[in-house]
# Entry
Amino acid sequence: MDGENHTMVSEFVFLGLTHSWEVQLLLLVLSSVLYVLSMAGNSLIVFSVTCDLHLHSPMYFLLAGLSFIDLVACSVTSPKMVYDLFRKRKVISFGGCITQIFFIHVVGGVEMVLLMAMAFDRYVAICKPLHYLTIMSPRMCILFLAGAWGLGISHSLFQLAFIINLPFCGPNMLDSFYCDLPRLLRLACTDTYKLQFMVTINSGFICVGSFLLLLISYIFIFFSVWKHSSGGSSKAVSTLSAHITVVLFFFGPTLFIYTWPHPHSQIDKFLALFDAVLTPFLNPVVYTFRNKEMKEAIKKVFKTLLTFKFFHK
# Structure
């Protein structure tokens, strides 16, 4: 189709999650509370790891990196979604839609690499404890973080390359609450079947491959813990179970969305809601309540803040 014969789309309209006012009100309250708690919890972890010298170790450095990316994750779609729950007509500009897609895939790529880095960190700590500080040096941690962001941005730019030159000149209704790349491709004024297939294969392959790699890694680590059972094994198992819980929270909805064979299914919208609102909230909860050192560090932060507030009244 010749794009010159059509008016280019300047905005997209979200159909949202539901048309029920009662359900929208419930989602508004839950999403707002979870967003505030997610921002507070992840900010507290980043602040605690930065300020507490006892947490200046590779594991907590990577945890702070994960919490930071969770801050970005819950800010990409949640504020817009909460704002749209007040409005009857939910719209987003073309540029805003592209920006959402870019950051969604950056966050996904960075988080996958960080979760693998955290699995590697636990492998070295449990299986090669005498060489831990040598292998997990500050340089290695920085390389992991830089590699995570580099791969996340590269993956996102690769995804955007599929749509940057596509003509959008007709329908502009997105049956979602955020800009989802597969749904957006179906609105283009050209045949995008091959592009949709490539996007699904690309994201699906990365998700499935990363998940299987992490699953095999943790099975191997658990086997090593069981084989070399000692007094510290219970602490190791507790730490590993927290990591695996976070992995399942992150990969569960993502795997379903990109491997589900029915693209018009409505289930993926609610799974995306889980991924956007609930997962960033659960990550700090899992790591905080199952980690004694984190709890102590957070208590110190609260005491410091209360002391600061008292002396500056």
Q: What stands out?
A: The first helix runs from residue 21 to 51.
